[in-house]
Amino acid sequence: MKNTPPETGAFFARDRDMHPPAYAPWYKTSVLRSPQRALISLEGTKSEITGPVFGHGLLNELDNDLIMNYAKPGEMAVGQRILVHGQVLDERGIGVHGALVEFWQANAGGRYRHKKETYLAALDPNFGGVGRAITDENGYYWFKTIKPGPYPWPNGVNDWRPAHIHFSIFGHGFAQRLITQMYFEGDPLIWKCPIVKTIPDEDAIKRLVAPLDMNATIPMDMRAYKFDIVLRGRRSTLFENRKEGN
Amino acid sequence: MVQPLGYLKESASQTAGPYVHIGCTPNFVGIEGIFDQDLGSGPLYNDKTRGERITIRGHVYDGGGNTLKDGLVEIWQADTDGFYNSPSETRGKADPNFLGWARCPGDMATGEFVFHTIKPGKVPFDGTRWMAPHITFWVVARGINIGLQTRMYFPDEEDANAADPVLARIEHKVRIPTLIANRQGDDYVFDIRLQGENETVFFDI
Questions:
Q1: How do the domains of chain A map onto residue ranges?
Q2: pLDDT digits 0-9 by tens, B142-154
Q3: What local confidence, expressed as pLDDT, does residue A244 receive?
Q4: Which of A79, B14, B149, B179 could be A181's S-S partner, Cβ–Cβ 3.0 to 4.6 Å?
Q5: Of B25, B101, B105, which Cα lies nearest the Cα of B60?
Q6: Which of A18, A50, A75 to mutate to test binding with chain B, by most B CBs within 10 Å of its CB?
Q7: What is the spatial distance between Cα A243 and Cα B5, in angstroms, rounded to a whole number?
Q8: Which chain positions lie within coiled-coil regions (chain A) (predicted)?
Protein backbone atom coordinates (compact mmCIF):
# COMPACT_ATOMS: atom_id res chain seq x y z
CA MET A 1 0.00 0.00 0.00
CA LYS A 2 1.01 3.58 -0.54
CA ASN A 3 2.84 5.24 2.29
CA THR A 4 0.47 8.20 2.46
CA PRO A 5 -1.85 9.15 5.29
CA PRO A 6 -5.52 8.31 4.76
CA GLU A 7 -7.66 11.11 3.43
CA THR A 8 -10.43 12.48 5.57
CA GLY A 9 -12.04 15.21 3.45
CA ALA A 10 -15.65 15.22 2.32
CA PHE A 11 -16.43 14.07 -1.22
CA PHE A 12 -17.17 16.40 -4.11
CA ALA A 13 -20.89 16.85 -4.63
CA ARG A 14 -22.30 14.21 -6.96
CA ASP A 15 -23.13 15.67 -10.40
CA ARG A 16 -26.61 14.23 -10.84
CA ASP A 17 -26.76 15.54 -14.45
CA MET A 18 -24.32 12.76 -15.35
CA HIS A 19 -26.37 10.04 -13.65
CA PRO A 20 -29.74 8.55 -14.56
CA PRO A 21 -32.75 10.09 -12.83
CA ALA A 22 -34.64 7.71 -10.56
CA TYR A 23 -37.78 7.99 -12.69
CA ALA A 24 -37.17 6.98 -16.31
CA PRO A 25 -40.51 5.58 -17.58
CA TRP A 26 -39.06 4.00 -20.74
CA TYR A 27 -37.27 1.67 -18.32
CA LYS A 28 -40.58 0.41 -17.00
CA THR A 29 -39.51 -1.07 -13.67
CA SER A 30 -38.31 2.38 -12.55
CA VAL A 31 -41.88 3.72 -12.57
CA LEU A 32 -42.89 2.14 -9.24
CA ARG A 33 -39.38 2.00 -7.78
CA SER A 34 -38.41 5.68 -7.95
CA PRO A 35 -38.88 8.13 -5.07
CA GLN A 36 -41.21 11.04 -5.83
CA ARG A 37 -39.82 13.36 -3.17
CA ALA A 38 -36.58 15.26 -3.68
CA LEU A 39 -33.44 13.83 -2.11
CA ILE A 40 -32.34 15.59 1.08
CA SER A 41 -28.83 16.98 0.55
CA LEU A 42 -26.30 16.35 3.24
CA GLU A 43 -22.66 17.34 3.42
CA GLY A 44 -20.38 14.41 4.11
CA THR A 45 -20.31 13.50 7.80
CA LYS A 46 -18.09 10.86 9.36
CA SER A 47 -20.74 8.33 8.34
CA GLU A 48 -20.26 9.05 4.63
CA ILE A 49 -16.52 9.78 4.34
CA THR A 50 -15.62 6.46 5.97
CA GLY A 51 -16.11 3.05 4.40
CA PRO A 52 -15.15 -0.60 4.81
CA VAL A 53 -11.78 -1.91 3.64
CA PHE A 54 -11.32 -5.39 2.21
CA GLY A 55 -7.88 -6.95 2.34
CA HIS A 56 -6.19 -8.93 -0.41
CA GLY A 57 -6.54 -11.93 1.89
CA LEU A 58 -10.18 -12.04 0.82
CA LEU A 59 -9.25 -13.26 -2.65
CA ASN A 60 -8.82 -16.79 -3.92
CA GLU A 61 -6.44 -17.49 -6.78
CA LEU A 62 -9.13 -17.72 -9.48
CA ASP A 63 -11.39 -14.90 -8.29
CA ASN A 64 -10.36 -12.81 -11.33
CA ASP A 65 -10.52 -15.65 -13.87
CA LEU A 66 -14.11 -16.33 -14.94
CA ILE A 67 -12.91 -18.70 -17.66
CA MET A 68 -11.62 -21.10 -15.01
CA ASN A 69 -13.22 -20.32 -11.65
CA TYR A 70 -16.36 -22.41 -12.26
CA ALA A 71 -14.89 -24.90 -14.73
CA LYS A 72 -14.63 -28.61 -14.07
CA PRO A 73 -11.08 -29.99 -13.86
CA GLY A 74 -9.54 -30.02 -17.32
CA GLU A 75 -12.32 -27.94 -18.88
CA MET A 76 -13.00 -24.25 -19.43
CA ALA A 77 -15.83 -21.89 -20.35
CA VAL A 78 -16.91 -21.56 -24.01
CA GLY A 79 -16.85 -18.24 -25.87
CA GLN A 80 -14.67 -15.30 -26.87
CA ARG A 81 -11.76 -15.15 -24.46
CA ILE A 82 -11.12 -11.59 -23.30
CA LEU A 83 -9.06 -9.71 -20.74
CA VAL A 84 -10.79 -6.74 -19.09
CA HIS A 85 -8.46 -4.31 -17.37
CA GLY A 86 -8.37 -0.71 -16.26
CA GLN A 87 -7.86 1.73 -13.47
CA VAL A 88 -10.16 2.90 -10.71
CA LEU A 89 -9.56 6.65 -10.38
CA ASP A 90 -11.23 9.42 -8.48
CA GLU A 91 -12.34 12.68 -10.05
CA ARG A 92 -8.93 14.22 -9.33
CA GLY A 93 -7.33 11.55 -11.52
CA ILE A 94 -5.75 9.79 -8.56
CA GLY A 95 -5.69 5.98 -8.64
CA VAL A 96 -7.86 4.44 -5.92
CA HIS A 97 -5.77 1.75 -4.24
CA GLY A 98 -7.32 -1.18 -2.41
CA ALA A 99 -10.75 -0.76 -4.05
CA LEU A 100 -12.89 -3.91 -4.15
CA VAL A 101 -14.27 -4.43 -7.67
CA GLU A 102 -16.97 -7.10 -8.10
CA PHE A 103 -18.29 -8.12 -11.52
CA TRP A 104 -20.97 -10.42 -12.90
CA GLN A 105 -22.32 -11.24 -16.34
CA ALA A 106 -24.19 -13.60 -18.64
CA ASN A 107 -22.39 -16.33 -20.59
CA ALA A 108 -21.44 -16.25 -24.29
CA GLY A 109 -25.07 -16.90 -25.28
CA GLY A 110 -26.58 -14.22 -23.04
CA ARG A 111 -27.75 -16.67 -20.35
CA TYR A 112 -27.33 -15.84 -16.67
CA ARG A 113 -26.78 -18.53 -14.03
CA HIS A 114 -29.65 -17.45 -11.75
CA LYS A 115 -32.68 -19.23 -10.30
CA LYS A 116 -35.13 -16.70 -11.76
CA GLU A 117 -33.61 -16.68 -15.26
CA THR A 118 -35.76 -18.36 -17.96
CA TYR A 119 -34.12 -17.38 -21.29
CA LEU A 120 -33.92 -20.42 -23.57
CA ALA A 121 -30.24 -19.98 -24.43
CA ALA A 122 -28.17 -22.74 -22.86
CA LEU A 123 -26.22 -22.56 -19.63
CA ASP A 124 -22.51 -23.27 -19.94
CA PRO A 125 -21.69 -25.94 -17.32
CA ASN A 126 -18.21 -24.44 -16.99
CA PHE A 127 -19.21 -20.79 -16.55
CA GLY A 128 -20.46 -19.21 -13.32
CA GLY A 129 -20.30 -15.56 -14.31
CA VAL A 130 -18.91 -13.95 -11.17
CA GLY A 131 -15.53 -12.65 -10.07
CA ARG A 132 -13.79 -9.94 -8.07
CA ALA A 133 -10.49 -8.11 -7.75
CA ILE A 134 -8.85 -5.56 -5.46
CA THR A 135 -7.01 -2.68 -7.12
CA ASP A 136 -3.24 -2.39 -6.72
CA GLU A 137 -1.39 0.62 -5.31
CA ASN A 138 -2.08 2.62 -8.49
CA GLY A 139 -5.73 1.62 -8.75
CA TYR A 140 -5.32 -1.04 -11.45
CA TYR A 141 -7.42 -4.20 -11.72
CA TRP A 142 -7.80 -6.93 -14.35
CA PHE A 143 -9.70 -10.15 -14.98
CA LYS A 144 -10.12 -12.82 -17.63
CA THR A 145 -13.55 -13.75 -18.87
CA ILE A 146 -15.79 -14.73 -21.80
CA LYS A 147 -17.40 -11.90 -23.77
CA PRO A 148 -21.08 -11.99 -22.73
CA GLY A 149 -23.84 -12.28 -25.33
CA PRO A 150 -26.72 -9.80 -25.76
CA TYR A 151 -29.84 -10.66 -23.85
CA PRO A 152 -33.60 -10.18 -24.47
CA TRP A 153 -35.73 -8.83 -21.65
CA PRO A 154 -39.39 -8.04 -21.10
CA ASN A 155 -39.58 -4.25 -21.25
CA GLY A 156 -40.69 -3.28 -24.73
CA VAL A 157 -41.84 -6.22 -26.88
CA ASN A 158 -38.43 -6.53 -28.54
CA ASP A 159 -35.83 -5.02 -26.21
CA TRP A 160 -32.33 -6.50 -26.05
CA ARG A 161 -29.57 -5.53 -23.68
CA PRO A 162 -26.23 -4.87 -25.35
CA ALA A 163 -23.42 -7.16 -24.26
CA HIS A 164 -22.48 -5.89 -20.81
CA ILE A 165 -20.64 -6.67 -17.60
CA HIS A 166 -22.05 -5.44 -14.28
CA PHE A 167 -19.58 -3.76 -11.90
CA SER A 168 -19.86 -2.96 -8.20
CA ILE A 169 -17.10 -0.81 -6.67
CA PHE A 170 -16.13 0.11 -3.11
CA GLY A 171 -13.83 3.12 -2.88
CA HIS A 172 -12.50 4.61 0.34
CA GLY A 173 -15.78 6.10 1.58
CA PHE A 174 -19.32 4.74 1.61
CA ALA A 175 -20.35 7.88 -0.36
CA GLN A 176 -18.30 6.51 -3.30
CA ARG A 177 -20.32 3.30 -3.44
CA LEU A 178 -21.23 2.65 -7.08
CA ILE A 179 -22.86 0.01 -9.26
CA THR A 180 -22.66 0.42 -13.02
CA GLN A 181 -22.36 -1.54 -16.28
CA MET A 182 -19.60 -1.81 -18.87
CA TYR A 183 -20.43 -2.01 -22.58
CA PHE A 184 -18.26 -3.03 -25.55
CA GLU A 185 -16.95 -0.78 -28.32
CA GLY A 186 -18.96 -0.97 -31.53
CA ASP A 187 -22.05 -2.75 -30.18
CA PRO A 188 -25.04 -1.30 -32.11
CA LEU A 189 -27.44 -2.29 -29.32
CA ILE A 190 -25.91 0.29 -26.94
CA TRP A 191 -27.79 3.20 -28.54
CA LYS A 192 -31.12 1.34 -28.58
CA CYS A 193 -31.10 0.22 -24.95
CA PRO A 194 -33.66 1.78 -22.54
CA ILE A 195 -31.35 1.19 -19.56
CA VAL A 196 -28.38 2.87 -21.28
CA LYS A 197 -30.73 5.71 -22.26
CA THR A 198 -31.61 6.41 -18.63
CA ILE A 199 -28.25 8.28 -18.65
CA PRO A 200 -29.08 11.80 -19.86
CA ASP A 201 -25.57 12.75 -21.02
CA GLU A 202 -24.09 11.29 -24.20
CA ASP A 203 -20.50 11.65 -23.02
CA ALA A 204 -21.39 9.93 -19.76
CA ILE A 205 -22.70 6.98 -21.81
CA LYS A 206 -19.49 6.88 -23.87
CA ARG A 207 -17.47 6.65 -20.67
CA LEU A 208 -19.18 3.30 -19.96
CA VAL A 209 -18.10 1.85 -23.34
CA ALA A 210 -14.83 -0.07 -23.13
CA PRO A 211 -12.55 0.23 -26.19
CA LEU A 212 -10.75 -2.70 -27.75
CA ASP A 213 -7.16 -2.55 -26.48
CA MET A 214 -4.85 -4.39 -28.87
CA ASN A 215 -1.79 -3.36 -26.82
CA ALA A 216 -3.03 -5.41 -23.89
CA THR A 217 -4.21 -8.31 -26.06
CA ILE A 218 -2.35 -11.59 -25.47
CA PRO A 219 -1.40 -12.97 -28.92
CA MET A 220 -2.88 -16.38 -29.76
CA ASP A 221 -4.85 -16.29 -26.48
CA MET A 222 -7.26 -13.43 -25.77
CA ARG A 223 -8.23 -9.94 -26.86
CA ALA A 224 -8.38 -7.10 -24.32
CA TYR A 225 -10.81 -4.31 -23.44
CA LYS A 226 -9.86 -1.36 -21.23
CA PHE A 227 -12.41 -0.03 -18.78
CA ASP A 228 -11.53 2.81 -16.42
CA ILE A 229 -13.92 3.64 -13.61
CA VAL A 230 -14.10 7.07 -11.97
CA LEU A 231 -15.32 7.47 -8.39
CA ARG A 232 -16.10 10.72 -6.64
CA GLY A 233 -13.12 12.87 -5.65
CA ARG A 234 -12.67 14.31 -2.19
CA ARG A 235 -11.61 17.65 -0.82
CA SER A 236 -8.25 18.07 0.81
CA THR A 237 -8.52 18.79 4.50
CA LEU A 238 -5.37 20.93 4.15
CA PHE A 239 -7.64 23.78 3.13
CA GLU A 240 -10.22 23.34 5.85
CA ASN A 241 -10.58 24.56 9.37
CA ARG A 242 -9.80 21.68 11.65
CA LYS A 243 -13.15 21.71 13.33
CA GLU A 244 -12.27 18.77 15.53
CA GLY A 245 -8.77 19.99 16.35
CA ASN A 246 -7.12 16.93 14.81
CA MET B 1 -9.21 31.27 -22.43
CA VAL B 2 -8.30 29.70 -19.12
CA GLN B 3 -6.70 26.44 -18.20
CA PRO B 4 -9.08 23.53 -18.11
CA LEU B 5 -9.92 22.50 -14.55
CA GLY B 6 -9.01 18.97 -15.50
CA TYR B 7 -11.25 17.04 -13.17
CA LEU B 8 -12.61 13.72 -14.37
CA LYS B 9 -16.34 12.98 -14.19
CA GLU B 10 -17.71 10.22 -11.99
CA SER B 11 -18.76 7.11 -13.95
CA ALA B 12 -22.52 7.05 -14.44
CA SER B 13 -24.56 4.69 -12.31
CA GLN B 14 -26.65 1.92 -13.85
CA THR B 15 -29.23 -0.36 -12.26
CA ALA B 16 -27.91 -3.44 -10.47
CA GLY B 17 -30.52 -5.44 -12.41
CA PRO B 18 -32.49 -8.51 -11.34
CA TYR B 19 -29.41 -10.74 -11.15
CA VAL B 20 -27.32 -8.63 -8.79
CA HIS B 21 -27.03 -11.73 -6.59
CA ILE B 22 -24.75 -13.44 -9.11
CA GLY B 23 -22.06 -10.87 -8.42
CA CYS B 24 -22.75 -9.89 -4.83
CA THR B 25 -24.20 -13.01 -3.17
CA PRO B 26 -23.53 -15.92 -5.57
CA ASN B 27 -23.93 -18.68 -2.97
CA PHE B 28 -27.42 -17.30 -2.22
CA VAL B 29 -28.49 -18.21 -5.77
CA GLY B 30 -26.70 -21.55 -5.88
CA ILE B 31 -23.42 -20.54 -7.54
CA GLU B 32 -21.21 -22.40 -5.13
CA GLY B 33 -17.52 -23.18 -5.08
CA ILE B 34 -16.22 -19.82 -6.33
CA PHE B 35 -16.37 -17.81 -3.09
CA ASP B 36 -16.18 -19.61 0.26
CA GLN B 37 -19.10 -17.51 1.50
CA ASP B 38 -21.03 -14.50 0.35
CA LEU B 39 -19.32 -11.24 1.26
CA GLY B 40 -21.07 -9.49 4.12
CA SER B 41 -23.31 -12.43 5.08
CA GLY B 42 -23.83 -13.62 8.64
CA PRO B 43 -23.74 -11.63 11.90
CA LEU B 44 -21.57 -8.50 12.00
CA TYR B 45 -20.26 -9.51 15.43
CA ASN B 46 -18.21 -12.37 16.83
CA ASP B 47 -17.67 -13.51 20.42
CA LYS B 48 -15.20 -10.70 21.13
CA THR B 49 -17.17 -7.80 19.65
CA ARG B 50 -18.18 -5.22 22.22
CA GLY B 51 -21.69 -3.79 22.35
CA GLU B 52 -25.37 -4.62 22.56
CA ARG B 53 -26.50 -7.32 20.13
CA ILE B 54 -29.51 -6.32 18.06
CA THR B 55 -31.49 -7.69 15.12
CA ILE B 56 -32.84 -5.46 12.36
CA ARG B 57 -35.39 -6.73 9.90
CA GLY B 58 -37.54 -5.12 7.27
CA HIS B 59 -38.89 -5.03 3.73
CA VAL B 60 -38.46 -2.69 0.79
CA TYR B 61 -41.80 -1.64 -0.76
CA ASP B 62 -42.45 -0.18 -4.22
CA GLY B 63 -45.02 2.51 -5.07
CA GLY B 64 -47.74 -0.13 -5.40
CA GLY B 65 -47.18 -1.49 -1.91
CA ASN B 66 -45.46 -4.63 -3.20
CA THR B 67 -42.34 -5.97 -1.51
CA LEU B 68 -39.18 -6.09 -3.61
CA LYS B 69 -38.03 -9.70 -3.86
CA ASP B 70 -34.93 -8.94 -5.92
CA GLY B 71 -33.36 -6.11 -3.94
CA LEU B 72 -30.03 -5.93 -2.13
CA VAL B 73 -29.46 -3.92 1.03
CA GLU B 74 -26.08 -2.91 2.50
CA ILE B 75 -25.46 -1.27 5.86
CA TRP B 76 -22.52 0.73 7.22
CA GLN B 77 -22.26 1.74 10.87
CA ALA B 78 -19.98 2.72 13.74
CA ASP B 79 -18.98 0.44 16.62
CA THR B 80 -20.45 0.63 20.12
CA ASP B 81 -18.29 3.68 20.93
CA GLY B 82 -19.14 5.53 17.71
CA PHE B 83 -15.89 4.76 15.85
CA TYR B 84 -15.82 3.62 12.22
CA ASN B 85 -13.56 0.77 11.17
CA SER B 86 -12.05 2.79 8.31
CA PRO B 87 -8.68 4.42 7.53
CA SER B 88 -10.56 7.73 7.32
CA GLU B 89 -11.51 7.44 11.01
CA THR B 90 -9.23 9.96 12.70
CA ARG B 91 -10.47 10.06 16.29
CA GLY B 92 -9.34 6.67 17.50
CA LYS B 93 -9.28 2.99 16.69
CA ALA B 94 -12.54 1.14 16.18
CA ASP B 95 -13.31 -2.25 17.74
CA PRO B 96 -11.06 -4.60 15.69
CA ASN B 97 -13.75 -7.28 15.97
CA PHE B 98 -16.32 -5.21 14.16
CA LEU B 99 -16.09 -4.43 10.42
CA GLY B 100 -19.26 -2.32 10.49
CA TRP B 101 -20.46 -3.35 7.02
CA ALA B 102 -22.80 -6.08 5.76
CA ARG B 103 -25.07 -6.89 2.85
CA CYS B 104 -28.29 -8.89 2.65
CA PRO B 105 -30.40 -9.86 -0.34
CA GLY B 106 -34.15 -9.71 0.14
CA ASP B 107 -35.64 -13.18 0.65
CA MET B 108 -36.82 -14.43 -2.77
CA ALA B 109 -40.25 -15.44 -1.42
CA THR B 110 -40.98 -12.70 1.12
CA GLY B 111 -38.49 -9.93 0.33
CA GLU B 112 -37.41 -9.69 3.98
CA PHE B 113 -33.86 -8.60 4.87
CA VAL B 114 -32.28 -9.32 8.27
CA PHE B 115 -29.11 -8.00 9.93
CA HIS B 116 -27.63 -9.28 13.20
CA THR B 117 -25.44 -6.47 14.44
CA ILE B 118 -24.70 -4.24 17.43
CA LYS B 119 -26.23 -0.93 18.38
CA PRO B 120 -23.84 1.83 17.25
CA GLY B 121 -22.66 4.67 19.48
CA LYS B 122 -23.05 8.37 18.82
CA VAL B 123 -20.87 9.91 16.10
CA PRO B 124 -19.82 13.59 16.04
CA PHE B 125 -21.38 15.81 13.37
CA ASP B 126 -18.90 18.65 13.86
CA GLY B 127 -16.95 20.08 16.77
CA THR B 128 -19.99 20.86 18.87
CA ARG B 129 -22.87 18.60 17.84
CA TRP B 130 -23.46 14.86 17.87
CA MET B 131 -25.50 12.65 15.60
CA ALA B 132 -27.85 10.20 17.27
CA PRO B 133 -26.98 6.51 16.89
CA HIS B 134 -27.79 5.55 13.30
CA ILE B 135 -27.03 3.02 10.60
CA THR B 136 -26.50 4.00 6.94
CA PHE B 137 -28.51 1.92 4.45
CA TRP B 138 -27.83 1.58 0.71
CA VAL B 139 -30.51 -0.05 -1.48
CA VAL B 140 -30.08 -1.31 -5.03
CA ALA B 141 -32.36 -3.41 -7.24
CA ARG B 142 -33.84 -3.81 -10.69
CA GLY B 143 -35.62 -0.54 -11.49
CA ILE B 144 -33.38 1.54 -9.20
CA ASN B 145 -31.06 3.51 -11.49
CA ILE B 146 -28.76 4.82 -8.78
CA GLY B 147 -28.30 3.35 -5.30
CA LEU B 148 -30.58 4.92 -2.69
CA GLN B 149 -29.00 6.05 0.55
CA THR B 150 -30.94 6.42 3.78
CA ARG B 151 -30.44 6.12 7.55
CA MET B 152 -32.06 4.12 10.29
CA TYR B 153 -32.40 5.72 13.73
CA PHE B 154 -33.54 4.08 16.98
CA PRO B 155 -36.96 4.62 18.63
CA ASP B 156 -35.46 4.40 22.13
CA GLU B 157 -33.15 7.40 21.53
CA GLU B 158 -35.74 10.16 21.62
CA ASP B 159 -33.53 12.86 23.14
CA ALA B 160 -30.58 12.13 20.84
CA ASN B 161 -32.87 12.00 17.80
CA ALA B 162 -34.39 15.35 18.74
CA ALA B 163 -30.89 16.87 18.80
CA ASP B 164 -29.66 15.14 15.62
CA PRO B 165 -28.42 17.71 13.07
CA VAL B 166 -29.22 15.48 10.10
CA LEU B 167 -32.82 14.86 11.14
CA ALA B 168 -33.06 18.60 11.81
CA ARG B 169 -32.21 19.13 8.13
CA ILE B 170 -35.52 17.57 7.09
CA GLU B 171 -37.85 20.49 6.53
CA HIS B 172 -41.08 18.47 6.60
CA LYS B 173 -40.97 17.08 10.12
CA VAL B 174 -43.78 14.64 9.35
CA ARG B 175 -41.23 12.67 7.28
CA ILE B 176 -38.78 12.10 10.13
CA PRO B 177 -40.58 8.99 11.47
CA THR B 178 -39.81 7.22 8.16
CA LEU B 179 -36.18 7.04 9.37
CA ILE B 180 -36.94 5.68 12.84
CA ALA B 181 -37.22 1.91 13.27
CA ASN B 182 -40.10 0.33 15.18
CA ARG B 183 -39.57 -2.03 18.10
CA GLN B 184 -41.28 -5.40 17.63
CA GLY B 185 -40.45 -7.79 20.43
CA ASP B 186 -36.66 -7.97 20.59
CA ASP B 187 -36.17 -6.78 17.01
CA TYR B 188 -35.99 -3.43 15.31
CA VAL B 189 -38.15 -3.28 12.19
CA PHE B 190 -37.07 -0.84 9.49
CA ASP B 191 -39.28 -0.84 6.39
CA ILE B 192 -38.19 1.21 3.38
CA ARG B 193 -40.90 2.71 1.15
CA LEU B 194 -39.49 3.77 -2.20
CA GLN B 195 -42.47 5.80 -3.35
CA GLY B 196 -45.79 7.30 -2.32
CA GLU B 197 -47.43 7.44 1.09
CA ASN B 198 -44.88 7.54 3.93
CA GLU B 199 -42.09 7.53 1.37
CA THR B 200 -38.75 7.03 3.13
CA VAL B 201 -36.39 10.00 3.19
CA PHE B 202 -33.42 9.42 0.88
CA PHE B 203 -30.25 11.47 1.00
CA ASP B 204 -27.89 12.97 -1.56
CA ILE B 205 -24.75 12.58 0.49
A1: 53-231
A2: 999 999 999 999 9
A3: 44
A4: B14
A5: B105
A6: A50
A7: 28
A8: none
